[in-house]
Structures are given as C-alpha cells and as structure tokens.
Specification:
There is one protein chain. By secondary structure, this protein is α+β, with helices and mostly antiparallel strands. The protein has 2 domains: 59 residues, Ribosomal Protein S8, Chain: A, domain 1, CATH 3.30.1370.30; 55 residues, Dna Ligase, domain 1, CATH 3.30.1490.10. 32% of the residues lie in helices and 27% in strands. It contains 4 helices and 8 strands, in the order H-E-H-E-E-E-E-H-E-E-H-E. Strands 4, 5, 6, 7 and 8 form a 5-stranded antiparallel sheet that branches. The chain has a 3-stranded antiparallel sheet with strand order 1-3-2, covered by helices on one side. A hairpin with a 2-residue loop joins strand 6 and strand 7.
Length: 129
C-alpha cells in the first residue's frame, strides 16, 4: 500500500534520472501527479509523458531528458502566505531563481513564481531544480 503516491512518483523519476534512463513508469496515476508532471514538462525538467489505462488505476510513462538534478515532495505540506515564498525558496532551492516550488492554491496547482504574480498563498507540494 502506498502512503504517498506523489512522493513515490518523484522518487522513481529521480532514481531513473540518476541511472540515465530514458523513460520511467509511474503507477498509479492520479490527477495531482499528472498536474505536477505537466508543470515539470512546461519548465523543461522532464520530456513528455503519456497516460496508459490498464483497468487497474492506470500508469504514466514519463520521458526523461537529463535536466533534473533533484526533486521531492515537501512534507509536511506547509501553508504559506503570499509574502513568505522567499523563506521557502531559501530552504528548498539551491539558489535564487534556480528551480521551482509547486504550490496548491485556491486557483489550482501552480509554481511559486505564478503564485507571486497572482498574489496568492497556498500549500507547498513539490520542489525541483
């Protein structure tokens, strides 16, 4: 039984990336995992991905391009205000403007940079650089 499918998915991606694999299978598929992968794809951390339905929850095939150094979930999922993102950047990212933090906000799952622009806070989900 998986306690945190998002953490398991990111761990599989990071391990495959370190082994220089070209693709990795993530099982089970969920909406949050797909949204996080979409954001990572838009920011050039991973290649494309496709969802494959097998009748047992499905799985996702992710193409890796070698741009990911580290990624992980943020636990506990800290709540943050719109003006506190710099504190979390210092804690989870190696340098200013390097990498991103993915945040769950009332406006959807977005990056911390978009949350700053939209002037909203939320709960921290994932960091990657």
């Amino acid at each position: 039984m998986l306690n945190d499918p998002l953490a398991t998915a990111l761990s599989k991606i990071l391990n495959a990336e370190r082994r220089s694999k070209k693709e990795v299978l993530i099982k089970p598929a969920s909406k949050i995992i797909k949204t996080v992968l979409t954001i990572m794809n838009e920011n050039q951390f991973i290649g494309g991905f496709e969802e494959i339905e097998d009748g047992k929850g499905g799985f996702i095939k992710v193409q890796l391009i070698g741009n990911l150094n580290k990624c992980g979930v943020i636990k506990p999922r800290f709540s943050t205000k719109k003006n506190e993102f710099e504190k979390w950047e210092k804690r989870y990212l190696p340098a200013k403007d390097l990498g991103l933090i993915i945040v769950s906000t009332p406006r959807g799952i977005i990056t911390h940079l978009q949350a700053k622009e939209k002037n909203t806070g939320g709960k921290l989900l994932v960091y990657c650089y």
